[in-house]
Amino acid sequence: MGPMIFSFLVSFTTLSLSALVTLSSSDELFYHNCGNSFKCGSIAGVGYPFHGYEEPEYCGYPGLVLACKNNIPTIRIVNVEYRVLDIDQTTKTMRIAREDMMGDVCKLDLVNTTLDNSPFEFASSYTNLNFMYGCHFSVFPNLIQIPSCNISGNEVFLLPETGFFNLGCESKITVPVEGWDMAMNLSNLGQAIQSGFKVRWKVDSEKCRDCAGSGGRCGYDFVTNRTTCYCPNPPYTAETCSTAAGALPTTAPTVPGMLLCL
Ligand SMILES: *[C@@H]1O[C@H](CO)[C@@H](O)[C@H](O)[C@H]1NC(C)=O
Ligand SMILES: *[C@@H]1O[C@H](CO)[C@@H](O)[C@H](O)[C@H]1NC(C)=O
Ligand SMILES: *[C@@H]1O[C@H](CO)[C@@H](O)[C@H](O)[C@H]1NC(C)=O
Ligand SMILES: *[C@@H]1O[C@H](CO)[C@@H](O)[C@H](O)[C@H]1NC(C)=O
């Protein structure tokens, strides 16, 4: 009798434990793991489609990952790091500025500012400034307003985008600026660049609204490549959750509780 009960207990415990392990690796965790909103510096309460750097990937839309460095919120878009100056989730816009140019606009990394193939588009009017460097000329008519930076020992010239000039420069970096004015000097140009530009994220928010309204938490399904909904109760992943927010959880009792019942 004794050994039988013992072996029954052992196999029951083993069963319960394996059930728990199965549960832990199941969809149930999606809801629990995606409960944090992003907070950093002056920005708080930012949720889906964004997610914080430390959160699981499935909590946010691909590419909409916010980081926090020394209390400064940043986002990486097409290989450029931007400072996030503000976020407005109702208009789906945010104001961003190139992080490399926040100290000294002349110390920019040699990468273009582009939103191509990103989930963002420009959301306000702007002028694309070309920082031209490695140019094979020393004097140029006064079309070039601000010849005052150096990149890798090369003088840098600035041109608002025209598409007209081919000045024989080695390369150029484009940087968008709002309120460009030919009369700008390096100081107020710097301020304009550091005030950033507005972008809009091209992610439908309707599905997430419905999900949140049903008591779920929004996430991203990397199989269907779509916004999905994580629920506190089964089914843990759905279009919307079937039970209203605040409903009592109907999940199975935990392992310690089951052992106590024995
Ligand atoms: C930036 O983009 C322009 C085209 O818009 C290109 O000519 C230039 O080489 C690019 N610069 C770098 C550093 O990639
Ligand atoms: C930029 O570099 C050139 C060539 O190395 C140098 O002659 C010039 O003084 C530098 N200008 C500035 C503003 O540092
Ligand atoms: C830059 O221009 C602004 C306004 O035009 C002016 O007030 C400021 O003194 C100028 N700064 C420098 C360093 O020239
Ligand atoms: C989802 O996106 C990945 C990567 O872009 C792609 O390989 C996959 O085919 C997509 N799946 C669907 C269902 O569109």
UniProtKB/TrEMBL annotation:
GO terms for cellular component: membrane. It is found in: Membrane. Keywords: Glycoprotein, Kinase, Receptor, Signal, Transferase. Pfam families: GUB_WAK_bind, WAK_assoc. One of its GO terms (molecular function) is protein serine/threonine kinase activity. Residues 168-233 form the Wall-associated receptor kinase C-terminal domain. Transmembrane segments: none annotated. This is non-specific serine/threonine protein kinase. It comes from Actinidia chinensis var. chinensis (Chinese soft-hair kiwi).
